[in-house]
Design brief:
membrane, about 375 residues, cell outer membrane, mainly beta, transmembrane helix, about 10% helix, 16 strands, 4 helices, 4 domains, four-stranded mixed β-sheet, extended, six-stranded antiparallel β-sheet, Ubiquitin-like (UB roll), Fimb_usher
Length: about 375
C-alpha cells in the first residue's frame, strides 16, 4: 500500500512540473532594447532538471528562465510606434551568446522613417546603414516583441518624435518613378465627295512626354491636313499648344514650370503664358490638410485626453501634456457647423467648449498659402 502511495506522489509531481513548463513555454516573451531591462524587470524562473526523465535531462532549458526565447532568424512583423500601426517590416534577430535571447538592431534610416527627429539621434549619422541598439540611438526608447502575434511594439518618447499632420508621408519615401518616354495620339480622317468635288481632311493630336530624373518634359500639339480637289490645293499645318518642363520641390510643396503653360482657372479664365512659374501643389499635402478646417486652441491643466466631436460623432482624439495646446490637422469638416471640444483631465475634471466656423471655396488654413 505504501509503495503504491509513493509512486502516486511522484507521478503527481512530474505531472505538475510538465504543466508549469508547458505554460512557461507558451507565454510570449517581451524583449526590451536594454539588457538591464530584459534581465531585471522579467522574473526569473528556474526548473529542476531532476524532474525530467531519461534523455530529457540532457535538454538545455536555460533559455526558458525568462520566458519564451526568441530564436535567431528573419521575421516579418507588424510594427507599431507608440501604439500606432506603421506597417509590415522585416527584422533580423541575432543572438550574441548561446543563452541570450536573439535581438534586433535599428539604423538611422529606420528611425527617421518612424518619425524620430534627426537631432535626437545620439551618434553622428555618418552612415544611414549603421545598426545599433534602440536605446543607444534614443534615450528611454525600447521595443517589445510578441512572438505569438508576430508584433513588434516600439516605444519612443513623444519629445523625440516629429509632430506631423494626420496622413503625413515623409517626402524621402516618395517615389518619383522611372526614366521613361511616351507618345500618345488621336487621329482621324474623312473624305467628302459632292458633285465631282472631292475634299480630304486629316487630323492628329499629339501628347509627348519625357521623364528624366526629377524633370518632366511635356508637349501637346495638333497636325491638320486638307486636300481640295476643286482648287488643286493641299494645306498641311502643325500647331504647338504648349511645351513645358516641370520639377517638383517636396520640401516647399511646390512645382516649378518653365515654358509655355496656362494659369490656373480656380477663380478666373486660364490665360496662356511663356515664362517661369513657381506655384504650390496641394497634392503634396497630407490628406488632413486638404481643404479648410478650423484650428483648435486650448489649455490643459494636467496630462489630458482631448476629444473633438461634430454633431455627436467623434472625429478627432489625442492626448496632450499640461499647458497650451493647438490642434491644426483636422480633416475638412464641411463649409459650416460647430465643433464640440472636450478636455478630460487626469484629476477627473472635464472642460468643454464649442467652436463655430464657416468657410468658402478655396479658403486656406492659417499659415498656408
Amino acid at each position: 500500500m505504501s509503495e503504491w502511495f509513493i509512486s502516486s506522489i511522484c507521478f503527481k509531481k512530474r505531472t505538475t512540473y510538465y504543466l508549469v513548463l508547458s505554460l512557461a513555454i507558451n507565454i510570449p516573451l517581451t524583449i526590451y532594447a536594454s539588457d538591464n531591462m530584459n534581465r531585471e524587470n522579467i522574473l526569473k524562473a528556474d526548473f529542476d532538471t531532476n524532474f525530467l526523465v531519461g534523455n530529457a535531462q540532457k535538454i538545455d532549458i536555460g533559455r526558458f528562465k525568462y520566458g519564451n526565447p526568441i530564436l535567431p532568424g528573419e521575421y516579418s512583423l507588424d510594427v507599431y510606434i507608440n501604439g500606432q500601426w506603421l506597417g509590415k517590416r522585416k527584422f533580423v534577430f541575432k543572438s550574441t551568446r548561446s543563452n541570450e535571447n536573439a535581438k534586433t538592431c535599428f539604423t538611422p534610416n529606420m528611425l527617421l522613417e518612424y518619425g524620430v527627429k534627426p537631432e535626437i539621434l545620439h551618434h553622428e549619422v555618418s552612415s544611414t546603414f549603421t545598426c545599433n541598439d534602440l536605446d543607444k540611438w534614443v534615450n528611454d526608447a525600447f521595443y517589445q516583441f510578441d512572438t505569438s502575434r508576430l508584433r513588434l511594439d516600439i516605444s519612443i518618447p513623444q519629445v523625440a518624435l516629429q509632430k506631423n499632420a494626420q496622413g503625413y508621408v515623409d517626402p524621402r519615401l516618395w517615389d518619383r518613378g522611372i526614366n521613361a518616354a511616351f507618345f500618345a495620339y488621336n487621329a482621324s480622317a474623312y473624305r467628302i465627295v459632292n458633285n465631282n468635288h472631292e475634299t480630304n481632311h486629316a487630323f492628329m493630336g499629339t501628347n509627348v512626354g519625357l521623364n528624366l530624373y526629377d524633370w518632366q518634359l511635356r508637349h501637346t500639339g495638333q497636325w491638320k491636313w486638307q486636300d481640295h480637289n476643286e482648287i488643286q490645293e493641299k494645306v498641311s499645318s502643325y500647331t504647338s499648344n504648349n511645351t513645358y518642363a516641370q520639377k517638383a520641390f517636396p520640401t516647399l510643396n511646390s512645382v516649378v514650370t518653365l515654358g509655355d503653360y496656362f494659369t490656373n482657372n480656380n477663380f478666373f479664365d486660364a490665360l496662356p503664358y511663356r515664362g517661369i512659374n513657381i506655384s504650390s501643389d496641394d497634392r503634396m499635402l497630407p490628406n488632413s490638410m486638404l481643404g479648410y478646417a478650423p484650428q483648435i486652441r486650448g489649455y490643459a491643466k494636467t496630462n489630458a485626453k482631448v476629444e473633438v466631436r461634430q454633431q455627436g460623432n467623434l472625429i478627432y482624439q489625442t492626448t496632450v501634456t499640461p499647458g497650451s495646446f493647438e490642434i491644426n490637422d483636422l480633416y475638412p469638416t464641411g463649409f459650416s457647423g460647430e465643433l464640440q471640444v472636450s478636455i478630460y483631465e487626469t484629476n477627473g475634471e472635464i472642460q468643454k467648449f464649442s467652436i463655430p466656423y464657416a468657410s468658402v471655396i478655396e479658403m486656406l488654413r492659417p499659415k498656408m498659402s
